[in-house]
Design a protein that fits this description.
Layout: H1 7-19, H2 26-31, E1 37-46, E2 52-63, E3 69-76, H3 81-97, E4 104-110, H4 118-132, E5 141-145, H5 151-165, H6 186-204, E6 213-217, H7 221-232, E7 236-242, E8 245-248, H8 255-265, E9 276-278, H9 280-284, E10 290-293, H10 302-307, E11 312-314, H11 323-331, E12 335-337, H12 339-342, H13 345-359, H14 365-389, H15 395-414
Parallel strand pairs: 3-4, 3-5, 6-7, 6-10, 10-11, 11-12
Antiparallel strand pairs: 1-2, 2-4, 7-8, 8-9
Helix pairs in contact: 1-3, 1-15, 3-15, 4-5, 6-7, 6-13, 6-14, 13-14, 14-15
Length: 418
C-alpha cells in the first residue's frame, strides 16, 4: 500500500531521528516539534460578478528563538493546517542550517489561483494582509513567496501593511520586485542554492558534474532556474515536468527554450526539444546522475524510492521525500541533499533583502550571489562534517543535528521555561 505521509508528522519524525544524536533535553526537543502559534482565518472576498466567496487561510509561527519568523505564503488547493505547520517547521531548521538570524514561519491560502482574475487575487491577497497585519512586521514575522505567489503578491501585501500602519517598512516582506525594495538575485536564489549544493555534493562524492544527466520535477520558479543554472555548469538537462506531465530527451535540451515554451503555452508538454513524453512518475525514476524534485511534498514515497535510479537528489522542493523514501534511498546509497539546505538560497537572499531594506542601501547582484555562495558552501561543509563525525544514516539527519542544536542553544541561552 502506498505510504500516506502527513507532512507535519514527517517533520516530527525528522526531528526525532536527529534528536537521537543530540544531548538536548527531551522537553526542549518536544517544544521544537510544535509551532508556537497558528492563525487560522476565513477571508470573505467580493468576486468580479459581485458575489462573495470565502477562503480559508493560515499563518504558522513555528519558532522565533533565533529571530523574526520567516517563510513564504503558498496559494494552492491542497494547503492545509498541517501542511502549513510542517512548512513553518522546515523554515525554522532551514534558517538555522543557513545560520542566518531568523526563525521559521509559513502561510497559505486554500485557493487555486488559476480559477480567479487578477483583481480577485488582489482582493484575496489584501484581505489576507489585513488579517496578518497584527502578526507581521520587520522584527516580528516576515513573509515571502512560495508556490503560486511571487513579486506581485508580495508588493500587494507590503502596500496593504504600509497603508494600514501609516509607515514605510519594506522589510515587512521579502521577494518584492526591485522597484518596491526587492533584492537582486532573489528570484534565482532558490534554484541557485539547489545547484550550488549539488555541485558541492558531486565534488564530495568525487563525481563529475560536467556532462552529468539531470531530471527536474516541477518547472516553476525553483525548478526552471535550477535547470538553467545546472546547464550553465556543464550538466545536461534531459527531463523536466510540470503538473501536466514530463518531457524527455536523452541527449538533453535547452532549459531556457523549454521555459519559453511553457510561458507561451502554459506547460512544458509539446516542447519541440523533447523526444518523448513521460508521466511524472517516470521522470522520478529515470536513470540520471542528479534528480531535482522542485514541485510539492511527498513526490517520492517508499515504494517509488525502490525504483529511483538517480545517484544524487537535490531537494529544491520542501518535503519531496517521505520518511519511508528516505530510509529506502539511504539503503541504496543515494545521496540526498535535504531541502533545508538545498533550497535555503531563497530565504538566504530574502535575509539579504531584509538587511538591505533596513539599511536602505542596496547591493549588486554580484555581491548577493557571492554572499549566497559562501553561506551555502559553509552549510554544506557543516553538514558533511556532522555526516562523517556522527555516523548518521543520511545527510538529512546530519543537517537536522546541526540545525536543532543551533535552535536549542538559542532557546537555552535565553533563559529558562516561563
Ligand atoms: N519560491 C521560492 O523561493 C521557494 C520555493 N521552495 C519550494 O520549491 C517548490 C516549488 O516552488 P516554486 O517553484 O516557488 O513554485 P511555482 O508555483 O513557481 O512552481 C511549481 C511548479 O511545480 C509544478 N507541479 C505541481 N505539481 C506537480 C507535479 N505533481 N509534478 C510535477 N510538477 C508539478 C507546477 O506545474 C509548477 O511548474 C515548493 O516545494 C516550494 O515550497 C523552496 C524554497 C523557496
Ligand atoms: O524567502 C523566504 O523567506 C522563504 C522562502 C520559503 O518559503 C521557503 O524557503 O520555503
Amino acid at each position: 500500500m502506498a505510504e500516506e505521509a502527513n507532512p507535519f508528522e514527517s517533520l516530527q519524525s525528522q526531528i526525532d531521528d536527529a534528536a537521537a544524536y543530540l544531548e538536548v533535553d527531551d522537553d526542549v526537543i518536544e517544544r521544537l516539534k510544535h509551532p508556537e502559534r497558528v492563525l487560522e482565518t476565513n477571508l470573505t472576498v467580493e468576486m468580479d460578478d459581485g458575489s462573495l466567496e470565502r477562503f480559508k487561510a493560515f499563518r504558522s509561527q513555528f519558532n522565533g528563538d533565533r529571530g523574526p519568523y520567516k517563510g513564504g505564503i503558498r496559494y494552492h488547493p491542497q494547503v492545509s493546517r498541517d501542511e502549513v505547520k510542517a512548512l513553518s517547521g522546515w523554515m525554522t531548521y532551514k534558517t538555522a542550517t543557513a545560520d542566518i538570524p531568523l526563525g521559521g514561519g509559513k502561510g497559505g491560502i486554500i485557493i487555486d489561483p488559476a480559477d480567479y482574475s487578477e483583481s480577485e487575487l488582489e482582493r484575496v491577497t489584501r484581505a489576507f494582509a489585513k488579517e496578518l497585519r497584527p502578526l507581521i512586521g520587520e522584527d516580528r514575522d516576515v513573509p515571502a513567496p512560495d508556490v503560486n505567489t511571487g513579486q506581485r503578491e508580495m508588493n500587494w501585501i507590503k502596500d496593504t501593511y504600509e497603508t494600514l500602519e501609516n509607515t514605510t517598512e519594506p522589510g515587512v516582506i521579502t521577494g518584492k520586485n526591485l522597484a518596491s525594495g526587492g533584492s537582486e538575485g532573489r528570484v534565482e536564489a532558490t534554484g541557485r542554492s539547489t545547484v550550488i549544493a549539488a555541485r558541492e555534493a558531486f565534488d564530495y562524492l568525487d563525481k563529475d558534474l560536467e556532462g552529468a544527466t539531470v531530471a527536474v520535477q516541477g518547472y516553476g520558479n525553483a525548478g526552471w532556474i535550477a535547470a538553467k543554472l545546472i546547464d550553465e555548469m556543464g550538466a545536461t538537462v534531459v527531463a523536466a515536468s510540470d503538473s501536466s506531465g514530463a518531457i524527455y530527451n536523452p541527449d538533453g535540451f535547452d532549459p531556457v527554450a523549454a521555459k519559453d515554451h511553457k510561458n507561451e503555452t502554459g506547460s512544458v508538454i509539446g516542447f519541440e526539444g523533447s523526444e518523448e513524453e513521460l508521466t511524472n512518475e517516470d521522470l522520478l525514476t529515470l536513470d540520471v546522475d542528479l534528480l531535482i524534485p522542485a514541485a510539492l511534498e511527498n513526490a517520492i514515497d517508499a515504494d517509488l524510492a525502490e525504483d529511483v535510479e538517480a545517484d544524487v537528489i537535490s531537494e529544491a522542493a520542501n518535503g519531496p521525500l517521505t520518511p519511508g523514501a528516505d530510509e529506502v534511498l539511504a539503503e541504496k546509497d543515494v545521496f540526498v541533499i535535504p531541502d533545508i539546505l538545498a533550497n535555503a538560497g531563497g530565504v538566504t537572499v530574502s535575509y539579504f533583502e531584509w538587511v538591505q531594506n533596513r539599511q536602505r542601501f542596496y547591493w549588486t547582484e554580484e555581491k548577493v550571489n557571492a554572499e549566497l555562495e559562501e553561506l551555502i558552501v559553509d552549510a554544506f561543509d557543516a553538514l558533511v562534517d556532522t555526516f562523517e563525525t556522527h555516523d548518521v544514516d543520511n545527510a538529512r539527519i546530519a543537517a537536522y543535528v546541526v540545525a536543532i542544536q543551533r535552535v536549542a542553544d538559542s532557546f537555552e541561552e535565553a533563559g529558562s521555561w516561563p
